[in-house]
Amino acid sequence: LFVLILQHWDVFKYVTEVFILVPALLGLKGNLEMTLASRLSTAANIGQMDTPKELWRMITGNMALIQVQATVVGFLASIAAVIFGWIPDGHFSIDHAVLLCASSVATAFIASLVLGMIMIGVIIGSRKMGINPDNVATPIAASLGDLITLALLSGISWGLYKELESKAYVNPLVCAFFIALLPIWVIIAKKNAATREVLYSGWEPVIIAMAISSVGGLILDRTVSDPNFAGMAVFTPVINGVGGNLVAVQASRISTYLHMSGMPGESSETAPRKCPSPCSTFFSSDVNSRSARVLFLLVVPGHLVFLYTISSMQGGHTTLTLIFIVFYMTAALLQVLILLYIADWMVHWMWGRDLDPDNFSIPYLTALGDLIGTGLLALSFHVLWLIGDRDSDVGD
């Protein structure tokens, strides 16, 4: 619903590339915060955060690491937004490009700082209350990440847009300030053995996920303007958010389970390299199979709550008919089914190849969730339009 409101802000009307930043930054925050939550949950569960010294070491190293990742990937996301916005329109504005850079980097940095502190508090609190952080931290990271990031992006970009005419130097100064802080975070992260490896090897998944999300942003920018797909502006974040939350919980649980049996790369009967069968993923007596069944069963009640909320707030410009709900639920169930199966294979595959799934799997899985969810939702809208379920108020 927030996205529909933002369409009418001046900065979103005159600097339309900001729309391309929305999925990229939302995906980035989800990826960074969920991988942080997964890393710290695993560390807490295997006893690496039991003493104050270990706890402080994990907190400082991981906070510095996500500040580095957020600043760099936020900068790259702004470049992608400029390119994706410039190529179709054939129009390039240096002022708008600097505005996008400053907005993206500042949003990524501040959101990382706020969300990182919240995640640390949630994980420490969960451990003290005897709750498994894997079941709590990653969903909170994903949901709060979207809300806080979108609020920061809209507020910062609006404020910088207002300064564009009278104080043009503000935008490049903001951009330069956050980039200048990078060496400090790099030094802190390098000194910590727990984050040093991720600082060097953890870039590929978040950058690839950012690129996929940027393409998703371009698709969002195009579909919102198509009357046949206007309702997707509200439903896309919902289907992608639910799918991403559920698969992140499963990936984090499987990773913690594997960490309890040894280190990545060690041969273990619990980490097969071959592709699992759907039966072993969903219908075996294994603890991870049981959690997959529970998470899959949460899809319908979770989405029904969101659909009721959207309907009661009169959002989406799409009448919630029975046939629409059937198509929507089918797309949501299929998305989560595919993601849970891929998670079972991917986490074990990465483990067998000496890659820590906590750092590598979640960005790929959430990016795939966005791609699959958006694709299935677009297909559902298109089929509904073809069979004659066309709302007269779509796009109003």
Automatic annotation (TrEMBL):
Residue ranges crossing the lipid bilayer per the database entry: 12-32, 63-85, 97-124, 136-156, 168-188, 200-220, 292-310, 322-342, 362-387
Example of a GO cellular component annotation carried by this entry: plasma membrane
Annotated signal peptide: none
UniProt domain SLC41A/MgtE integral membrane: residue ranges: 22-156, 236-379
GO MF assignments: inorganic cation transmembrane transporter activity; monoatomic cation transmembrane transporter activity
SUPFAM superfamilies tied to this protein: MgtE membrane domain-like
Gene3D superfamilies: SLC41 divalent cation transporters, integral membrane domain
Location within or outside the cell: Membrane
Main subcellular localisation: membrane
UniProt keyword annotations, A-Z: Ion transport, Magnesium, Membrane, Transmembrane, Transmembrane helix, Transport
Membrane topology term: Multi-pass membrane protein
Family under the similarity heading: Belongs to the SLC41A transporter family.
PANTHER family for this protein: DIVALENT CATION TRANSPORTER SOLUTE CARRIER FAMILY 41 (PTHR16228), SOLUTE CARRIER FAMILY 41 MEMBER 1 (PTHR16228:SF23)
Reported function: Acts as a magnesium transporter.
Protein name in UniProt: Solute carrier family 41 member
Native source organism of the sequence: Phaethon lepturus
Lineage: Eukaryota, Metazoa, Chordata, Craniata, Vertebrata
